[in-house]
Amino acid sequence: MKFKVKTFNQLTTSELYDILQLRSEVFVVEQNCVYQDIDGKDQKALHILGIKNNKLIAYTRLFKGGDYFDEASIGRVVVKQSERKYGYGHDLMKFSIETIEEKFNTSTIKIGAQTYLQKFYESHGFKKIGKEYIEDGIPHIHMVKE
Questions:
Q1: What's the pLDDT score for residue 34?
Q2: Which residue has the higher pLDDT, 136 or 60?
Q3: What is the pLDDT of residue 129?
Q4: DSSP secondary structure code for residue 86 in this structure
Q5: Hey, where are the domains in the chain?
Q6: Predicted confidence band at 123 (pLDDT cuts at 50, 70, 90)?
C-alpha cells in the first residue's frame, strides 16, 4: 500500500467519490449506523489515502490543532473490510501520526475512538482520557498521544 497526502482542493472528483464510498461502506453499512458523514469538516482536513492496486483501501483525515479539537487530530480511520487482515490499519496510523508531526509540527494528537478499538490505538501510543460516551449510537472514548 502506498500513501497520498492531499488537501481537500487537491482531491480529484474520483478520489473524493472513492473516499465517501469507503467511509459509507464501513461507517454506515457495515456498522449499521445512520449518521451524517459529510459534516462540513473535510474542507479543513488533510486527507490520507491508502492505495493498493490503484484502489483506495484505507483512509484517514487529519486536522491541525483548533480545527476539530484543541490538539491535532486523526479521524475517519478506515480500512476496507477485505484488507484488514494484512495489518494496514497499523501502517495507516503510523503514517498519519508521522504526517501530523511533519505537517503540523506537533506530537500531541487527540482522537475520538470507537471504544472497541482502544487496544489498537494504545498500541500507537494513545491513552484513554475521560469517560466513555455515545456518538451516533456507538460507544466512543477520547484518547490522547503526547
A1: 84
A2: 60
A3: 97
A4: G
A5: 2-107
A6: very high
72 close to 55: Cβ distance less than 8 angstroms: no
The three-class DSSP label of residue 143 is: strand
Exposed e or buried b for every residue in 33-58, given b needs 16+ CB within 10 A? Answer: eeeeeeeeebeebbbbbbbeeeebbb
Among residues 109, 118, 23, 97, the alpha carbon closest in space to that of 69 is found at: 109
Contact 106, 71 (CB under 8 A): yes
C-alpha cell at 7: 488537501
Three cell numbers, residue 106: 506537533
What lies within 8 Å, CB to CB, of 102 at 6+ separation is none
Instruction: Give the residue among 76, 78, 34 at the shortest CA–CA distance from 56.
Output: 78
**Tens digit of each residue's pLDDT (9 = 90 or more) over 44-70:** 999 999 999 999 999 999 999 999 999
Into which CATH architecture does domain 2-107 fall? 3-Layer(aba) Sandwich (3.40)
CA-nearest of 90, 75, 96, 99 to 123 is 90
Q: pTM for this structure?
A: 0.95
Evaluate whether 62 touches 74 at the Cβ level (below 8 Å).
Answer: yes
